[in-house]
Amino acid sequence: MHKNLQAVVEAKLVGYLAESVKKAIYDGELDLDQVPEVSVEIPREKEHGDYATNLAMITAGKAGMNPRKIAEIIIENLEAPEVEDVSIAGPGFINFKLNNNWLYDNLRLIIGLGKDYGKIDQGKGKRVQIEFVSANPTGPLHVGHSRGAVVGDVTASIMEAAGYDVEREYYINDAGNQMDILAQSTLLRYKEIMGRDIEMPEDVYAGDYVIEIAEDLYKLHGDEILNKSEQKQLEICREYAYQEMLKNIEEDLKDFGIEFDSWFSERTLHPDKINEAVAKLRAKGYIYEEEDALWFKSTDFGDDKDRVVIKSDQSPTYLAADIAYHLDKLERGFDKLINVWGADHHGYIPRMKAVIEAFGYKRDTLEVIVVQMVTLLRKGKKMPMSKRAGSFVTMKDVNQEVGTDAARYYYIMRSTDSHLDFDLELAKEESTNNPVYYVQYAHARIHSIIDNAEVDGSDQNLDLLQDPAEIDLMKMLAKYPEEIKLSAESRQPHHLTSYAYDLATAFHAFYNNCRVNTEDIQLSKARLYLVDASRQVLKNVLTLLGISAPAEM
RNA sequence: GCCUGUUUAGUUCAAUGGACAGAACGGUUCUCUCCUAAAGAACAGAUAGUGGUUCAAUUCCACUAAUAGGUACCA
What we know:
five-stranded parallel sheet; 13% strand; RNA-binding
């Protein structure tokens, strides 16, 4: 069964056009060596029909004829049973009006496929790993992480729907300096609880969550930790704080509807995997020694300068761990690795691509989705954010204030390339102003209609659906699989939030123009069928976005 | 300085190289004896600048200007 009727219809049209051109060439009407690449598109203007092609215009140069003349020839030779009307317009566009049968077929397809409507085979089962969030376990997730979290999660869902085999992974930076700082911070707070005078150095985590951890530590161990050696004290603090933070992060993400298939610990790379990875690069000739340090020759692959992997004190850099980590990912056999990074890390992309190439893989095996920064606003005013001081707004705070549905929607409603203004007051507003509720309201409205219906949608005669609002709605429903394809290919979830919005608009317009539950039983049945299909698609898209689809509001 | 985004209506954002650039909010008007008015309809309003490629540019290229971020033997 075809899962994407719109694509089928487009392919048919393309086929008919190609045949027509072929025939014209054979008959000597067109002077061309071969049939050019044919494409059709849905015109922006409704008056231009259901589909249009620029075929006559792109061949004009080669055929040495004016486009409108070519269009005439193409139309004369065209055999297309589904096409109701053809016309030439503007500089040489050929516009098609189709009969509605495929739209009715598509309604049946939606009801038949149910929650699977929209799923396509674009990815052909290719294995994709999406790594996202990957925040240091040294504090709770804050708003800076939220956008990347939702973008990663929804991109993963979209690619699943598009037929990829997707794995979600979180890389835990649990080795290195920042963990030592966490240990020191915790120990200081612990000592503070003991009643000792402490001084908080500048480069220490000052957030209140550290105090909580220290208090828990005190409840568990009393003051006995202080009897141990300094090194042991730090180790206890480090491990306890680490586990607590990781638990906290995992919970916050889960509450936000985000779950990972795998959590990868950086520690497992130290030191063997790192040494092996570096050795591998060295064997390939991409490592050299200078000033007691080991350098990776990333300039061989287009990076601005070479990068240190092993410092002169023999400790590995962050990049070294990342080299080992990415080698591990590559060896796990994924066809595509996708990393979701904040814009503040974009400078890191060329060196990571260099790593991929150095290991002998294609550069674009690794793809980085760069997510631009978020500005948090309250009533149009910027909210100040300072990091180390501990006065940041956490992800959890925001989610609790505006609700996870609204928060998820807001984080993905813009192109990832665009900066995001997130206004808490707007996101919280339960009104027209808020696109989330607008979409959810359409779904709730449908349930109300179905509850009020006295007939059901069986034995329907779909030919009765002729109203422009009905046609618009059916076309919108038919677009869904293509929207999945577009979002999956472009890795841009915002196409789907705007699709959901447009679908809701088409439904509301239908609602206001076409009464469903009427005296006319036949018409009611047909409309109910359309309403049920709309319910299904709204539900599917909301589910994909990780947003609830309430039956009443 | 160099690298990467962004620049479209009063504001926040859309638009696989296509025809008359779409929404939302804000402004001005209409529409509930009717399945949820958390809705619908109407009006006014924009491609930063200069060149180039193209039958066709918001889209591709170059330069200019604004703006955000990056530019570590830090993570």
